[in-house]
Amino acid sequence: MKLFDVYPLYDITPVSAHGTTVIDKDGAHYLDLYGGHAVISIGHSHPHYLKRLKDQIDLIGFYSNAIQNPLQVQLAEKLGKLSDCEDYQLFMCNSGAEANENALKVASFITGKKRVIAFNNAFHGRTSAAVMATDNPKIQAPINAQQEVSYLPFEDTEALETELAKGDVCAVIIECIQGVGGLDMPSHEFTNSIAQLSKKYGAMVIADEVQSGYGRSGKFFAFQHYGLQPDIITIAKGMGNGFPVAGVLLASHIEPWMGMLGTTFGGNHLACAASLAVLEVIEDENLIENAANLEDYFRSKAAELPQIKALKGKGLMLGMEFDFEVAALRKKLILEHHIFTGAASNKNLLRILPALNVTKQAIDQFFDALKIELS
Protein backbone atom coordinates (compact mmCIF):
# COMPACT_ATOMS: atom_id res chain seq x y z
CA MET A 1 0.00 0.00 0.00
CA LYS A 2 1.21 3.53 -0.80
CA LEU A 3 0.30 6.78 0.88
CA PHE A 4 -2.34 9.04 -0.62
CA ASP A 5 -0.68 12.22 -1.87
CA VAL A 6 -1.86 15.30 0.03
CA TYR A 7 0.80 17.97 -0.54
CA PRO A 8 3.89 18.19 -2.75
CA LEU A 9 6.73 17.18 -0.43
CA TYR A 10 10.15 18.72 0.15
CA ASP A 11 12.95 16.21 0.64
CA ILE A 12 13.18 17.01 4.35
CA THR A 13 12.49 14.51 7.15
CA PRO A 14 12.18 16.13 10.59
CA VAL A 15 13.15 13.87 13.50
CA SER A 16 13.14 16.32 16.42
CA ALA A 17 12.27 19.90 17.28
CA HIS A 18 12.51 22.38 20.12
CA GLY A 19 11.33 25.97 20.36
CA THR A 20 11.37 27.35 16.82
CA THR A 21 14.02 24.89 15.60
CA VAL A 22 13.29 21.75 13.57
CA ILE A 23 16.08 19.19 13.05
CA ASP A 24 16.07 16.74 10.13
CA LYS A 25 17.46 13.22 9.85
CA ASP A 26 20.78 14.57 8.55
CA GLY A 27 21.20 16.93 11.49
CA ALA A 28 20.33 20.12 9.60
CA HIS A 29 18.61 22.82 11.67
CA TYR A 30 15.63 24.78 10.31
CA LEU A 31 14.07 27.97 11.66
CA ASP A 32 10.33 27.35 11.85
CA LEU A 33 8.37 30.52 11.06
CA TYR A 34 5.30 28.59 9.92
CA GLY A 35 4.48 26.36 12.88
CA GLY A 36 2.94 23.63 10.75
CA HIS A 37 0.03 25.80 9.54
CA ALA A 38 -0.11 27.95 12.75
CA VAL A 39 -0.43 24.87 14.96
CA ILE A 40 2.72 25.29 17.07
CA SER A 41 1.67 28.07 19.42
CA ILE A 42 4.08 27.64 22.36
CA GLY A 43 7.08 26.17 20.53
CA HIS A 44 8.09 22.60 19.80
CA SER A 45 8.69 20.31 22.80
CA HIS A 46 7.98 22.92 25.44
CA PRO A 47 8.99 21.28 28.75
CA HIS A 48 5.74 22.15 30.56
CA TYR A 49 3.71 20.79 27.66
CA LEU A 50 5.70 17.55 27.56
CA LYS A 51 5.37 17.06 31.31
CA ARG A 52 1.60 17.61 31.19
CA LEU A 53 1.19 14.98 28.48
CA LYS A 54 3.58 12.46 30.07
CA ASP A 55 1.94 12.80 33.47
CA GLN A 56 -1.50 12.34 31.93
CA ILE A 57 -0.61 9.25 29.88
CA ASP A 58 0.56 7.61 33.10
CA LEU A 59 -2.98 8.05 34.45
CA ILE A 60 -5.53 7.72 31.63
CA GLY A 61 -5.33 8.76 28.01
CA PHE A 62 -8.89 8.24 26.82
CA TYR A 63 -12.32 7.19 27.83
CA SER A 64 -15.85 7.78 26.59
CA ASN A 65 -17.60 11.12 26.94
CA ALA A 66 -20.40 9.18 28.63
CA ILE A 67 -18.43 9.48 31.88
CA GLN A 68 -17.23 12.58 33.72
CA ASN A 69 -13.90 14.12 32.77
CA PRO A 70 -12.87 16.86 35.23
CA LEU A 71 -10.16 18.01 32.82
CA GLN A 72 -12.85 19.26 30.45
CA VAL A 73 -14.31 21.42 33.22
CA GLN A 74 -10.85 22.78 34.11
CA LEU A 75 -10.18 23.58 30.46
CA ALA A 76 -13.50 25.36 29.95
CA GLU A 77 -12.91 27.49 33.05
CA LYS A 78 -9.31 28.34 32.10
CA LEU A 79 -10.20 29.10 28.49
CA GLY A 80 -13.12 31.29 29.53
CA LYS A 81 -10.96 33.29 31.92
CA LEU A 82 -8.01 33.89 29.57
CA SER A 83 -10.15 34.64 26.52
CA ASP A 84 -12.69 36.82 28.35
CA CYS A 85 -15.43 34.48 27.09
CA GLU A 86 -16.58 33.08 30.43
CA ASP A 87 -20.26 33.18 29.47
CA TYR A 88 -19.79 30.79 26.52
CA GLN A 89 -20.27 27.00 26.51
CA LEU A 90 -17.49 24.72 25.21
CA PHE A 91 -18.07 21.72 22.92
CA MET A 92 -14.86 19.83 22.18
CA CYS A 93 -14.01 18.04 18.95
CA ASN A 94 -10.90 17.18 16.93
CA SER A 95 -10.18 19.58 14.05
CA GLY A 96 -10.96 23.02 12.71
CA ALA A 97 -13.14 21.66 9.93
CA GLU A 98 -15.12 19.62 12.45
CA ALA A 99 -15.51 22.69 14.66
CA ASN A 100 -16.90 24.73 11.76
CA GLU A 101 -19.13 21.85 10.68
CA ASN A 102 -20.68 21.70 14.15
CA ALA A 103 -20.96 25.48 14.38
CA LEU A 104 -22.91 25.63 11.13
CA LYS A 105 -25.08 22.74 12.30
CA VAL A 106 -25.92 24.51 15.57
CA ALA A 107 -26.79 27.73 13.75
CA SER A 108 -29.10 25.82 11.43
CA PHE A 109 -30.71 23.87 14.28
CA ILE A 110 -31.36 26.98 16.37
CA THR A 111 -32.63 29.26 13.58
CA GLY A 112 -34.40 26.61 11.53
CA LYS A 113 -32.73 28.04 8.40
CA LYS A 114 -30.23 26.45 6.04
CA ARG A 115 -28.38 29.09 3.99
CA VAL A 116 -24.96 30.46 4.95
CA ILE A 117 -23.12 33.66 4.06
CA ALA A 118 -19.34 33.36 3.74
CA PHE A 119 -16.79 35.69 2.19
CA ASN A 120 -14.58 35.66 -0.88
CA ASN A 121 -11.27 33.82 -0.32
CA ALA A 122 -12.57 32.21 2.88
CA PHE A 123 -11.23 28.87 4.07
CA HIS A 124 -13.26 27.03 6.69
CA GLY A 125 -12.29 23.37 6.19
CA ARG A 126 -12.88 20.29 4.07
CA THR A 127 -15.86 18.53 5.67
CA SER A 128 -19.24 18.75 3.98
CA ALA A 129 -20.69 22.06 5.21
CA ALA A 130 -17.32 23.59 6.03
CA VAL A 131 -15.99 23.02 2.51
CA MET A 132 -19.04 24.66 0.99
CA ALA A 133 -18.35 27.75 3.09
CA THR A 134 -14.81 27.68 1.68
CA ASP A 135 -14.38 29.78 -1.45
CA ASN A 136 -12.36 27.21 -3.41
CA PRO A 137 -14.28 25.10 -5.95
CA LYS A 138 -11.23 22.84 -6.42
CA ILE A 139 -11.91 21.13 -3.09
CA GLN A 140 -15.69 20.88 -3.43
CA ALA A 141 -17.18 17.56 -4.55
CA PRO A 142 -20.66 17.20 -6.10
CA ILE A 143 -21.99 15.80 -2.83
CA ASN A 144 -21.28 19.17 -1.17
CA ALA A 145 -23.75 20.95 -3.45
CA GLN A 146 -26.61 20.38 -0.99
CA GLN A 147 -25.22 23.10 1.26
CA GLU A 148 -26.43 26.56 0.26
CA VAL A 149 -23.75 29.23 0.63
CA SER A 150 -23.52 32.75 -0.76
CA TYR A 151 -20.03 34.26 -1.07
CA LEU A 152 -19.76 38.02 -0.65
CA PRO A 153 -16.83 40.45 -0.76
CA PHE A 154 -15.69 42.25 2.36
CA GLU A 155 -17.13 45.79 2.69
CA ASP A 156 -20.23 45.27 0.54
CA THR A 157 -22.84 46.08 3.17
CA GLU A 158 -25.57 46.46 0.59
CA ALA A 159 -25.03 42.92 -0.74
CA LEU A 160 -24.89 41.60 2.82
CA GLU A 161 -28.25 43.10 3.72
CA THR A 162 -29.79 41.97 0.43
CA GLU A 163 -28.88 38.36 1.18
CA LEU A 164 -29.85 38.48 4.86
CA ALA A 165 -33.19 40.13 4.05
CA LYS A 166 -34.23 37.01 2.11
CA GLY A 167 -34.86 35.49 5.53
CA ASP A 168 -33.31 32.07 4.99
CA VAL A 169 -29.77 32.67 6.32
CA CYS A 170 -28.83 30.77 9.47
CA ALA A 171 -25.28 32.09 9.82
CA VAL A 172 -22.67 34.55 8.64
CA ILE A 173 -19.26 32.93 9.05
CA ILE A 174 -16.15 35.09 9.00
CA GLU A 175 -12.40 34.95 9.55
CA CYS A 176 -11.51 38.36 10.97
CA ILE A 177 -8.04 37.66 9.59
CA GLN A 178 -8.19 35.39 6.57
CA GLY A 179 -5.54 32.66 6.68
CA VAL A 180 -5.23 30.70 3.46
CA GLY A 181 -7.02 33.53 1.65
CA GLY A 182 -4.12 35.93 2.12
CA LEU A 183 -4.34 37.74 5.50
CA ASP A 184 -7.04 40.18 4.40
CA MET A 185 -9.09 41.80 7.16
CA PRO A 186 -12.49 43.53 7.10
CA SER A 187 -12.98 47.08 8.34
CA HIS A 188 -14.49 47.86 11.74
CA GLU A 189 -17.46 49.41 9.95
CA PHE A 190 -18.12 46.20 8.04
CA THR A 191 -17.91 43.92 11.09
CA ASN A 192 -20.33 46.29 12.86
CA SER A 193 -22.70 45.87 9.89
CA ILE A 194 -22.36 42.08 10.12
CA ALA A 195 -23.33 42.17 13.79
CA GLN A 196 -26.24 44.57 13.39
CA LEU A 197 -27.72 43.08 10.22
CA SER A 198 -27.37 39.47 11.41
CA LYS A 199 -29.29 40.34 14.57
CA LYS A 200 -31.92 42.25 12.57
CA TYR A 201 -32.60 39.32 10.24
CA GLY A 202 -32.24 36.45 12.71
CA ALA A 203 -28.89 34.98 11.60
CA MET A 204 -26.02 33.93 13.84
CA VAL A 205 -22.46 35.26 13.57
CA ILE A 206 -19.77 32.57 13.57
CA ALA A 207 -16.20 33.77 14.15
CA ASP A 208 -13.77 31.24 12.67
CA GLU A 209 -10.75 31.56 14.98
CA VAL A 210 -9.23 28.22 13.94
CA GLN A 211 -6.02 29.89 12.76
CA SER A 212 -6.25 33.36 14.32
CA GLY A 213 -7.18 32.34 17.87
CA TYR A 214 -5.08 31.57 20.94
CA GLY A 215 -3.19 34.85 20.96
CA ARG A 216 -1.85 34.71 17.44
CA SER A 217 -3.27 38.11 16.48
CA GLY A 218 -1.99 39.91 19.58
CA LYS A 219 -5.34 39.43 21.33
CA PHE A 220 -6.75 36.09 22.41
CA PHE A 221 -9.19 36.15 19.49
CA ALA A 222 -8.92 38.21 16.31
CA PHE A 223 -12.56 39.34 16.56
CA GLN A 224 -11.58 41.16 19.78
CA HIS A 225 -9.74 43.73 17.66
CA TYR A 226 -13.22 44.73 16.44
CA GLY A 227 -15.33 44.59 19.59
CA LEU A 228 -17.45 41.92 17.88
CA GLN A 229 -19.53 39.54 20.03
CA PRO A 230 -20.04 36.37 17.95
CA ASP A 231 -22.81 33.90 18.70
CA ILE A 232 -20.41 31.04 17.98
CA ILE A 233 -16.60 30.84 17.97
CA THR A 234 -14.57 27.99 16.48
CA ILE A 235 -11.06 27.08 17.64
CA ALA A 236 -8.40 24.50 16.77
CA LYS A 237 -4.77 24.65 15.47
CA GLY A 238 -2.85 26.45 18.27
CA MET A 239 -5.20 25.00 20.89
CA GLY A 240 -3.19 21.79 21.28
CA ASN A 241 0.29 22.74 20.00
CA GLY A 242 0.23 19.71 17.72
CA PHE A 243 -2.18 17.43 19.57
CA PRO A 244 -5.42 17.12 17.55
CA VAL A 245 -8.04 19.10 19.45
CA ALA A 246 -10.66 21.71 18.58
CA GLY A 247 -13.70 23.35 20.05
CA VAL A 248 -16.90 25.27 19.47
CA LEU A 249 -17.81 28.09 21.87
CA LEU A 250 -21.54 28.78 22.06
CA ALA A 251 -22.88 32.04 23.52
CA SER A 252 -25.00 31.71 26.65
CA HIS A 253 -28.22 32.58 24.81
CA ILE A 254 -27.88 29.41 22.71
CA GLU A 255 -29.68 26.53 24.37
CA PRO A 256 -28.52 23.24 22.81
CA TRP A 257 -30.44 20.09 23.62
CA MET A 258 -28.97 16.76 24.65
CA GLY A 259 -27.86 14.92 21.52
CA MET A 260 -27.58 18.00 19.28
CA LEU A 261 -23.82 17.42 19.05
CA GLY A 262 -21.69 14.40 19.83
CA THR A 263 -18.12 13.15 19.57
CA THR A 264 -16.10 10.03 20.30
CA PHE A 265 -12.58 11.42 20.63
CA GLY A 266 -13.34 15.08 21.30
CA GLY A 267 -12.21 16.33 24.70
CA ASN A 268 -10.34 13.17 25.63
CA HIS A 269 -7.97 13.26 28.59
CA LEU A 270 -4.80 13.76 26.54
CA ALA A 271 -6.40 16.47 24.43
CA CYS A 272 -7.43 18.34 27.56
CA ALA A 273 -3.97 17.96 29.11
CA ALA A 274 -2.37 19.37 25.96
CA SER A 275 -4.86 22.24 25.80
CA LEU A 276 -4.43 23.13 29.46
CA ALA A 277 -0.65 23.13 29.05
CA VAL A 278 -0.93 25.57 26.12
CA LEU A 279 -3.10 27.98 28.11
CA GLU A 280 -0.80 27.77 31.11
CA VAL A 281 2.27 28.60 29.03
CA ILE A 282 0.48 31.42 27.19
CA GLU A 283 -0.45 32.95 30.54
CA ASP A 284 2.82 32.33 32.39
CA GLU A 285 5.06 33.57 29.56
CA ASN A 286 2.86 36.51 28.44
CA LEU A 287 2.79 35.16 24.90
CA ILE A 288 -0.17 37.23 23.72
CA GLU A 289 1.73 40.41 24.61
CA ASN A 290 4.81 38.97 22.90
CA ALA A 291 2.83 38.42 19.70
CA ALA A 292 1.63 42.03 19.74
CA ASN A 293 5.08 43.42 20.47
CA LEU A 294 6.83 41.34 17.83
CA GLU A 295 4.36 42.52 15.20
CA ASP A 296 5.77 46.02 15.73
CA TYR A 297 9.32 44.70 15.45
CA PHE A 298 8.49 42.69 12.34
CA ARG A 299 6.90 45.73 10.70
CA SER A 300 9.95 47.87 11.44
CA LYS A 301 12.19 45.28 9.75
CA ALA A 302 9.83 44.91 6.76
CA ALA A 303 9.83 48.68 6.25
CA GLU A 304 13.53 48.46 5.39
CA LEU A 305 12.80 46.37 2.28
CA PRO A 306 11.12 48.27 -0.57
CA GLN A 307 10.34 44.98 -2.34
CA ILE A 308 7.68 44.30 0.32
CA LYS A 309 4.59 46.05 -1.02
CA ALA A 310 2.31 45.32 1.95
CA LEU A 311 2.46 43.60 5.33
CA LYS A 312 -0.97 42.21 6.14
CA GLY A 313 -2.43 40.71 9.29
CA LYS A 314 -1.95 41.23 13.01
CA GLY A 315 0.33 39.94 15.75
CA LEU A 316 2.22 36.87 14.55
CA MET A 317 -0.28 36.09 11.81
CA LEU A 318 1.37 38.06 9.03
CA GLY A 319 1.50 38.06 5.25
CA MET A 320 4.30 39.70 3.29
CA GLU A 321 3.08 40.72 -0.16
CA PHE A 322 5.54 41.26 -3.02
CA ASP A 323 4.97 42.36 -6.62
CA PHE A 324 6.09 38.94 -7.88
CA GLU A 325 5.15 35.32 -7.25
CA VAL A 326 7.04 34.04 -4.22
CA ALA A 327 7.20 30.27 -4.84
CA ALA A 328 10.85 30.40 -5.92
CA LEU A 329 11.76 32.69 -3.02
CA ARG A 330 10.03 30.44 -0.52
CA LYS A 331 11.86 27.41 -1.93
CA LYS A 332 15.22 29.16 -1.58
CA LEU A 333 14.42 30.15 2.00
CA ILE A 334 13.73 26.51 2.83
CA LEU A 335 16.50 24.75 0.91
CA GLU A 336 19.32 27.30 1.09
CA HIS A 337 18.64 29.23 4.30
CA HIS A 338 16.76 26.51 6.21
CA ILE A 339 13.79 28.73 7.08
CA PHE A 340 10.18 27.54 6.89
CA THR A 341 7.52 30.01 5.78
CA GLY A 342 4.04 29.45 4.35
CA ALA A 343 2.16 30.05 1.13
CA ALA A 344 -1.35 31.42 0.53
CA SER A 345 -3.90 31.54 -2.27
CA ASN A 346 -2.36 34.92 -3.10
CA LYS A 347 0.74 33.71 -4.99
CA ASN A 348 2.62 36.92 -4.20
CA LEU A 349 2.39 36.43 -0.46
CA LEU A 350 4.59 34.72 2.17
CA ARG A 351 2.77 33.70 5.34
CA ILE A 352 4.56 34.07 8.67
CA LEU A 353 3.02 32.02 11.51
CA PRO A 354 5.72 31.25 14.10
CA ALA A 355 5.29 30.07 17.66
CA LEU A 356 4.17 32.90 19.92
CA ASN A 357 7.46 32.73 21.84
CA VAL A 358 9.60 33.38 18.76
CA THR A 359 12.45 35.81 19.43
CA LYS A 360 13.72 38.99 17.80
CA GLN A 361 16.91 37.08 16.98
CA ALA A 362 14.92 34.57 14.93
CA ILE A 363 13.17 37.41 13.09
CA ASP A 364 16.56 39.02 12.41
CA GLN A 365 17.80 35.71 10.97
CA PHE A 366 14.81 35.63 8.61
CA PHE A 367 15.31 39.19 7.39
CA ASP A 368 19.05 38.64 6.89
CA ALA A 369 18.22 35.73 4.58
CA LEU A 370 15.50 37.74 2.85
CA LYS A 371 17.92 40.61 2.16
CA ILE A 372 20.34 38.21 0.51
CA GLU A 373 17.67 36.83 -1.80
CA LEU A 374 16.21 40.24 -2.64
CA SER A 375 19.54 41.97 -3.33
What does this structure look like?
34% of the residues lie in helices and 18% in strands. With 375 residues, the protein is of the alpha/beta class. The chain has two domains: 14-46 and 286-374, Aspartate Aminotransferase, domain 1 (Alpha-Beta Complex), CATH 3.90.1150.10; 48-284, Type I PLP-dependent aspartate aminotransferase-like (Major domain) (Aspartate Aminotransferase, domain 2, 3-Layer(aba) Sandwich). The strands form three sheets. The chain has a seven-stranded mixed sheet with strand order 4-10-9-8-7-5-6, sandwiched between helices. A four-stranded mixed sheet has the order 1-2-3-13. The chain has a three-stranded antiparallel sheet with strand order 11-12-14, with helices on one face. Strand 7, helix 7 (188-200) and strand 8 form a beta-alpha-beta unit. The radius of gyration is 20 Å and the shape is globular.
Mean pLDDT: 96
- Tally of extended strands? 14
User: What structural category do the secondary elements indicate?
Assistant: alpha/beta
Major sheet summary line: 7 strands, mixed
Give the radius of gyration.
20 Å
Report helical residue fraction.
25-40%
CATH architecture of the largest domain: 3-Layer(aba) Sandwich
In order across it, which strands form the biggest sheet? 4-10-9-8-7-5-6
Taken as a percent bin, the fraction of beta residues is: 15-25%
Distance between the termini: 46 Å
Tertiary shape: globular
What's the CATH class label of the largest domain?
Answer: Alpha Beta
At the fourth level of CATH, the homologous superfamily of the largest domain is Type I PLP-dependent aspartate aminotransferase-like (Major domain)
The string of secondary-structure elements, in order, is: EEEHHHEHEHEHEHEEEHHEEHEEH
Number of domains: 2
Number of helices: 11
- Please name the CATH topology of the largest domain: Aspartate Aminotransferase, domain 2
The residue ranges in which pLDDT falls below 50 over 5 or more consecutive positions are: none
